[in-house]
Amino acid sequence: VQLVESGGGSVQAGGSLRLSCAYSPWTYLYMGWYRQAPGGEREGVSTLDTTGGVTYYADSVKGRFTISKDNAKNTLYLQMNSLKAEDTALYYCVTTSDFLMLTMTALYWGQGTQVTVS
Asked: 18 with 79: CB under 8 angstroms?
């Protein structure tokens, strides 16, 4: 299983970025995004139930971030709008059995892509 993130970068507060995660063709029940700021704890951002399309978001990003998936391209996305300085972190694409991000565990991790908001 391979998860390869891209799309990170530096942006000013209020701006937007779209993260992409190209994954090995397989059926994963839940996919999502975690993040970790320098010196901070790992934080769940969003998950997607790939069978029914149900999504879940952390309160800190609700209304600003949107998770989606393109099955034809085997790619998971995270559209991030109205970015804030506190969104600065290394963002990881994951497959997980923890839809509500309660345990912060994952079955597979990508290498991460850096998002910096100034």
From this structure: yes
Nearest to 69 by CA among 16, 110, 19: 19
pLDDT digits (tens, 9 = 90+) for 91-106: 999 999 999 999 988 9
Tens-digit pLDDT profile for residues 26-65 = 878 999 999 999 899 999 999 999 998 999 999 999 999 9
What residues does 36 pair with on adjacent strands? 42, 90
Please give the Cα distance from 116 to 70 (Å, whole number): 25
User: What secondary structure, in 3-state letters, does the chain show?
Assistant: CCEEEECCEEECCCCCEEEEEEECCCCCCEEEEEEECCCCCEEEEEEEECCCCCEEECCCCCCCEEEEEEHHHCEEEEEECCCCHHHCEEEEEEEECCCCCCCCCCCEECCCEEEEEC
